[in-house]
């Protein structure tokens, strides 16, 4: 074997072994948020990171459960609470192992999670477009974290409060400012690289293409409309080429079992949820890239929200979408969006529900930045060739109609 062929052999072997490790070597975390005295009210937000790279974040209610799938390594779980509580826990993930943990929220003067909010002039707000807040890190380029000694950070002051930087408008969700100064990629939905998520940081299915593309589907929210007292279950069946990443509440093999409370909330394992949440990876060859729309940052989120309205999502569900994705898109001067409806999504993740639902509405917006529109061969490299319009057969769901399921999400390409 010549030197060049030997080098090529080892390179190919390394690529395949690396992909094999990602495919079969992931670990699982099954967790619960345990509220303690003074920390038993208000929403909690969970951040899962490795060093300064934020991998997952999700809202978890008191007594709520979560499920995380991760590559091996040492990671940090931080939970902050709108009631002013904080906890951090380090965890070692080993291949093919399941870690069952309980995270107890606590409160201490030095770890108060309160934030000073500042009103921002409209002229400043006008510059805060999707992705623009990714520049916030320039204000604190050397901040480490997350870690317990928050008093060492520049934005901590002697009163025990964290001074929210002036570029955060009060209209943002309560959790928006927590990670800005600690995570290098807080305003991105995942570990970004070259205009897409970094696949090396996330598990992948053994059926996924090693060199092929991949779509990280972030925060699909499943909303349920049903009469009070209704009991049912929802399972997400992943295709062989798709990979579970995260779920709240935990999904596991049984799926989600729930009851509808008097206020319309989803009640599962003694915790109340507004929606069922999950993240996963899908093979992009299974998704459509012919129909869609393109726009600059100021228009792209409103266009997606308008599509949700035409698909008969209600006001609260659309507000959830705007609150999250208005600050979670990657920075770019131009975006193209390729909506995936139920017929597309069923090829990568199929929803089964019991009893049979009256209707199921699914949409995931695959968002591609200008930088990824190279015009080369392959999916999602060119602007849509046809205009996408929502189907006209969708009816607005009401509790009197029975068991209705609606799901929205946003997808991103893997990095180069």
List the helices and strands in order: HEEEEEEEEHEEEEEEEEEEEHHEHEEEE
CATH class type of the largest domain = Mainly Beta
Count of individual beta strands = 24
Distance N to C terminus: 31 Å
User: What share of residues is helical?
Assistant: 10-25%
Please report the number of helical segments.
Answer: 5
**What's the structural domain tally?**
2
Main sheet? 11 strands, mixed
Radius of gyration from the CA trace? Answer: 21 Å
Average pLDDT score: 79
Q: DSSP strand (E) fraction?
A: 25-35%
Q: Structural class of the secondary elements?
A: mainly beta
**Low-confidence segments:** 1-23, 109-121, 134-168
CATH architecture descriptor name of the largest domain? Sandwich
Label the overall shape.
globular
Strand order of the largest sheet: 7-1-4-14-18-12-24-22-20-19-23
CATH 4th-level superfamily of the largest domain: Immunoglobulins
Annotation keywords:
single chain, 416 residues, Immunoglobulin-like, 2 domains, five-stranded antiparallel beta sheet, 35% strand
List the topology elements.
Layout: H1 3-24, E1 27-34, E2 44-50, E3 53-60, E4 65-70, E5 73-81, E6 86-93, E7 98-104, E8 115-116, H2 122-125, E9 162-163, E10 192-193, E11 196-197, E12 215-225, E13 231-238, E14 243-248, E15 256-260, E16 266-268, E17 271-273, E18 276-282, E19 291-295, H3 297-310, H4 315-325, E20 335-341, H5 342-345, E21 349-354, E22 359-369, E23 386-387, E24 404-413
Helix pairs in contact: 3-4
């Amino acid at each position: 074997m010549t030197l060049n062929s030997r080098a090529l052999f080892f390179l190919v072997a390394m690529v395949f072994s690396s992909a094999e490790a990602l495919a079969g070597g992931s670990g699982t975390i099954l967790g619960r948020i345990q509220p303690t005295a003074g920390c038993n009210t208000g929403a909690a937000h969970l951040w899962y990171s490795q060093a300064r790279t934020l991998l997952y974040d999700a809202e978890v209610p008191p007594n709520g459960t979560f499920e995380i799938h991760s590559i091996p390594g040492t990671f940090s779980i931080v939970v902050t609470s709108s009631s002013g509580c904080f906890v951090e826990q380090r965890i070692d993930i080993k291949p093919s192992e399941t870690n069952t943990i309980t995270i107890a929220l606590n409160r201490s003067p030095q770890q108060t999670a309160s934030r000073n909010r500042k009103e921002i002039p409209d002229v400043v707000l006008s510059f805060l477009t999707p992705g623009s807040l990714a520049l916030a890190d320039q204000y604190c380029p050397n901040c480490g974290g997350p870690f317990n000694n928050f008093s060492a950070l520049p934005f901590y002051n002697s009163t025990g409060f964290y001074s929210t930087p002036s570029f955060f408008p009060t209209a943002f969700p309560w959790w928006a400012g927590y990670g800005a100064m600690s995570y290098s990629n807080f305003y991105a939905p995942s570990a970004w690289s070259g205009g897409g998520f970094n696949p090396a940081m996330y598990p992948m299915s053994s059926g996924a293409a090693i060199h092929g593309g991949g779509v990280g589907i972030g925060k699909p929210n499943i909303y349920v409309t049903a009469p009070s007292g209704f009991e049912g279950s929802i399972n997400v069946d992943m295709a062989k080429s798709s990979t579970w990443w995260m779920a709240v509440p935990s999904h596991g093999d049984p799926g989600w079992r729930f009851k509808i409370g008097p206020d319309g909330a989803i009640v599962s394992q003694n915790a109340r949820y507004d929606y069922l949440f999950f993240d996963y990876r899908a093979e992009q060859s299974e998704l459509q890239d012919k129909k869609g729309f393109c726009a600059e940052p100021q228009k792209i989120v409103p266009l997606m929200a308008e599509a949700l309205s035409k698909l008969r999502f209600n006001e609260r569900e659309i507000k959830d979408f705007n609150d999250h994705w208005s600050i979670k898109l990657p920075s770019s001067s131009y975006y193209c969006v390729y909506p995936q409806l139920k017929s597309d999504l069923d090829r990568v993740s199929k929803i089964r529900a019991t009893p049979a639902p009256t209707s199921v509405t699914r949409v995931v917006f695959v968002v591609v930045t200008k930088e990824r529109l190279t015009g080369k061969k392959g999916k999602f490299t060119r602007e849509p060739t046809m205009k996408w319009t929502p189907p006209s057969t969708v009816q607005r769901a009401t509790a009197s109609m029975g068991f209705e399921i609606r799901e929205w999400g946003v997808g991103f390409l893997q990095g180069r």
